[in-house]
Amino acid sequence: MDPRIPIALDERLTADAAAWLADAVARVGEDPAAVRGVFPAVGRRCGRGPLIAGWTVADAARARLLAALPLSGAALAEEIAALHRYGDSAEQRAVLRSLALLEDTDASFADRGLPLVRAALRSNDTDLIESALGPYAARHLDAEGYRQAVLKSVFCGIPLARIAGLTERADRELARMLADFAHERVAAGRDVPADVWPVVRAHPGTLEASGLPAETGSPSPDRREAAVRALAAFSATATAPAPAGAA
Amino acid sequence: MRIFDPHIHMTSRTTDDYEALYAAGVRAVVEPSFWLGQPRTSVDSFTDYFDALLGWEPYRAAQFGIRHHCTIALNPKEANDPRCAGVLDVLPRYLAKDRVVAVGEIGYDSMTPEEDEALARQLALAVEHGLPVLVHTPHRDKAAGTRRTLDVVRESGIPPEHVLVDHLNELTVALVADSGCWMGFSIYPDTKMSEDRMVRILKDHGTARMLVNSAADWGRSDPLKTRKTADAMLAAGFDEDTVDQVMWRNPVAFYGQSGRLDLEDVEADGSALFEGNSVKRGGE
């Protein structure tokens, strides 16, 4: 977790909210089952507004409650999974955003939160998808899962800059998938989201292999124009630094 | 005119109903969890239902400018099915949630020992969570059932001002008035209670602690009965302030005891999505 988040939380909480949260953290530390009653109440006790770095006040307060659980490994994962199962979407996004912190606090938590990430990636809730694609997903999703998650984000309009680990994990196959996606958009006469270009650009040859450049010779003017716009955007894009698998 | 329907099952209603409710002045509703007309066979179908009452339905209501809250409970009818008794064990998770403004509907259907057990446990949960309760009174043997309900409520130690006893009529209203509990009336086409009978009851018993609802659900019912009763009150000589007391201030006072009523102006935001879904259809 971004170390600025707990600091920002402490600055933001009112005295009443801070006292409530401190008491809740203490109760959870003594009795893990107490989290079931306090976790849903965080929004109305601490606030729901935005904090920093895409986190809400409630997200950060909930992360603190989860980190206080005196559990580890499978028992920790079981309690977390139940909070997610019975959580509304605000509770679920906080669970997802807390997964990396849980693993940092308890190494034996390991990849036990991965089923929750996968469930979020199956949903159509962009808020949950984005919340799932933090550092924990970047660490644990396999190459295929990570590529699919990036592609789904593109489809859902989630800016790729918000996905953790893209620079390190974007590989040639992902560049191929994004170039094919770009071709598909151009063939439909549509524009391509600009944030796919750095990944494609980092893997020379993927754009050419997609067939997109040949669209400039299409008999349909809308396809030709879309291709010209896409190629101009591609050329104007700086190369992404140090991609995975690059020579 | 502003109206708060304190008991309506919107999951069974259409978007046309939401539009008509808004046009009639309804700005807030409470949806009690109840029977779905067909028995559920597992705890999981209850939790999916509770999740919908807390997720999809308030989202849907907000599209039409209506604030949606709910009450959560194991209803008396299904309390008799051993396959559903485990619902009582998951209730504490749900009673902690933001939009849950009461425990309900609880009460009696056929007055069995299983119903006794479920009622007593849920009254204790309400006390523990500091929540009001919405108590359903039986359709059959109503007067005896209402007396027994009031006895159990008294024994539970819950303060009477935290209790709303619903589906009352001419023969049960005085019992509840004397108990200090709030009184609820479901105005239905043909059965239970009509607008004109309701107006007579308000004239006879006053408007304090009185709530009027449509209890509209999947059966033959009319979500606009609150507005029709308000109009009947005005026609019978009640002033606008008294109508506002019954149709808005009373339900706000009762459910407001939960501390979870959120009545900031609901902005009908057609662009909002719930879990990526919208009530709009493709192409709109």
Automatic annotation (TrEMBL), chain A:
User: Which InterPro entries does the record match to this protein?
Assistant: EboA_dom
Q: What is this protein called?
A: Sugar phosphate isomerase
Q: Which organism is it from?
A: Streptomyces griseoruber
UniProtKB/TrEMBL annotation, chain B:
Organism of provenance = Streptomyces griseoruber
What is this protein identified as? Hydrolase TatD
Which GO MF terms does the UniProt record name? hydrolase activity, acting on ester bonds; metal ion binding
Q: What top-level branch of life does the organism fall under?
A: Bacteria
Keywords per UniProt: Hydrolase, Metal-binding
Entry's SUPFAM superfamilies?
A: Metallo-dependent hydrolases
UniProt feature coiled coil, ranges: none
Q: Which family does it belong to?
A: Belongs to the metallo-dependent hydrolases superfamily.
Q: What is the lineage of its organism?
A: Bacteria, Bacillati, Actinomycetota, Actinomycetes, Kitasatosporales
Database matches in Pfam families: TatD_DNase
